[in-house]
Amino acid sequence: FLQFQIGVDTQAGRIYLEAAHKIIAVQRQALSSIHALDTEREKKQLRIGVTPHDGAYAVTKLYPPFKRRFPQAELILFEGYTQELYEAVRNGKTDYLMTTFLPGHQGLRLLPLFEEELLLSVPVFHNLAALSSSNVNYLSEVDLEDFKDSPFVLMDDTTTIGPLSQKAIQAADFKPIVVFQSANGFLVDEMIRSGVGVGLIPRHYAAPSEDVVYFRLKEPCVLQYCIVVREDHELSKEERYLTYLQLKLREADCDISFCWSNELRALVDEFDMDEILPLGKG
Fold first, then answer.
1. pTM
2. Is 119:216 a contact under the CB 8 Å cutoff?
3. 202 phi and psi, to 5 degrees?
4. Cα distances (Å, whole numbers) of residue 39 to 35, 44, 72, 103
């Protein structure tokens, strides 16, 4: 309106237009800065603790759907073995653990997700290997005591599987001949496959093999997977969704059993109940 009154061909009009352009430029710069601040404010870092192998593998599967839902969220990974991870969340180095159940978790809150059996993995040349089933979905059962004279390859005490293995062996009432121990599950599995000894592994490690056979234990030994946070930590929406995705990742797995609780059911309801296994199962 003022431009029309002054006239663009007058000196006053040119001065006005130049000032208007500057005002518009300043306005655009201000809006751009505000948007940048808002974007930065929306960014959220999630400090996640995972094991180097199973945990890291799970993150590669969970990351794409997680980023689609929360594009501004950034996952900061802390890798370590079970004992180290529990200490990390207790000391504030990380906020949310994707790991397995470990006794003695004072000051921490655990949300169980699912369980799977430990299997006895046995080299094919072992004298008891012939008792096994060739179908990994229908395994034969054995007494662990029958293997008391066999060399054992075990996970060490910094892991969840190590103490579980020792507990199962103690229940069978014998002292094992331990020839190798490690915190690395893949290394333990490979040592068994190489014929070094027998050992207990998570069921999801079991696959048809020319090197080893598998047995279920007559007295089942169960490994529980869970979320671990500090007692005073409330799960954020991003963390709840990451938990939900872990259930989705294993929903078609017949070898696990979900640990349904009111909290877990509510979490599933929050996102997409129809896409998870029926809540009555397990």
1. 0.79
2. yes
3. -65, 150
4. 6, 10, 8, 41
Q: 187-246 pLDDT, tens per residue? A: 999 999 999 999 999 999 998 899 999 999 999 999 999 999 999 999 999 999 999 999
User: What backbone phi and psi angles, to 5 degrees, belong to 44?
Assistant: -135, 130
Asked whether 259 and 243 are in contact (CB, 8 A), the reply is no
Other C-beta atoms closer than 10 Å to the C-beta of 56 total: 13
pLDDT in tens, 75-97: 999 999 899 999 999 999 999 99
Residue 99 burial by Cβ neighbours in a 10 Å radius (0-12, 13-18, 19+): buried
SS3 annotation, the chain = CHHHHHCCCCHHHHHHHHHHHHHHHHHHHHHHHHHHHHHHHHCEEEEEEECCCHHHHHHHHHHHHHHHHCCCEEEEEEECCHHHHHHHHHCCCCCEEEEECCCCCCCEEEEEEEEEEEEEEEECCCCCHHHCCCCCCCCCEECHHHHCCCEEEEECCCCCHHHHHHHHHHHCCCCCEEEEEECCHHHHHHHHHCCCCEEEEEHHHCCCCCCEEEEEECCCCEEEEEEEEECCCCCCHHHHHHHHHHHHHCCCCCCEEECCCHHHHHHHHHHCHHHCCCCCCC
Written as one letter, the residue type at 6 is: I
Residue 119 and residue 213 in contact, taking contact as beta carbons nearer than 8 Å: no
142 compared with 43, residue with greater pLDDT: 142
Q: Are 238 and 73 in contact (CB under 8 A)?
A: yes
**Residue 255, token pair as written in the block:** 């070898």
